[in-house]
Amino acid sequence: MRVFALAFLAAKLWGKPVISLNQSFVVNHAADLAVAVNVFNAFSLNSFREKKSWAVANENGLHSSVLCPDFAFLDATEKAGKGPAGLEGGYFCVTGSAALENYALNDYAKTIEVLSKKTGLQPLCLYSRKSDRKLVEAICEKLGTGNLTVISQKDYKSHAEILPVLAHAAFTIGGRYHTSISALSMKTPVVLSAGNSHKNEGLGDMLGMSLPVFRSDDVDGILQQVMSYLENKAKVTEMLEAGLQDIQTQQKEFALQLSRMLFKTLAGNQEEPDERNLLQAPFPVVRSQISKGSRHSNIRSQIDINANLARYEWNELSNR
Known about the structure:
By secondary structure, this protein is α/β, with parallel strands linked by helices. Residues about 280-320 have low confidence and may be disordered. It is built from eleven helices and eleven strands.
């Protein structure tokens, strides 16, 4: 919570509007919960990025909380290029987890081996964290080096390079939250394992489909999910397309809400904005431009939201 100290002071001491974006709400102790509720309730608006955190926030008395699906879902606007060479026979992606220390790595490696044999697909491991390297080593030991492809941040340095790899995979399995979102955004189904919080549990509801979080050693459950994906490809793709469309609609609605709030703040709450102009050039009081960064060290989409205030309108409002 120390990260929010300056924002909390700005809200409490100087009455500044504070907007918290793309958050998860995870606390481990009652004392932490009390602090978190006090801090977030000092803010004008709290946007949570997945349904589990949003539900927990509401259950614990957070005011002014809204759901806006994770901005990493903007990967859905990207066009995928060609898949990796040498894997034309088909493959699936394997990621690690921020909670990998809680996994039985040998059991997880056995699960990957079973999936490869049952589906005839080759596993492709994606990793950027040193901790995930242990999983790669366990899978290599189980399958043999020649039966596994490994891609690290040394091979693919940008996030954009990873998207085609995910797009052309039959499915992705793992506990990395942002990699899972990027895969889903490419209409590639995912099999989720545990992360270091409940973030993964909140993904399925946003897409309107069942995305259970499996134990790493639940071979039967994972295999059943995978076979369901492979046997119903067209239906799964249709569900993902519909879910991604709903997510884009929610993000646009949130952008409008954010623009409306910022307009009224700058205008001293004295005017109602013309909503036809809020998100349109050339007269945006606030236009949210969401751009993706390319730092691949976390194999995830890094999002910057830049509220671009039209200079002439800013000056006009400031001089009133």
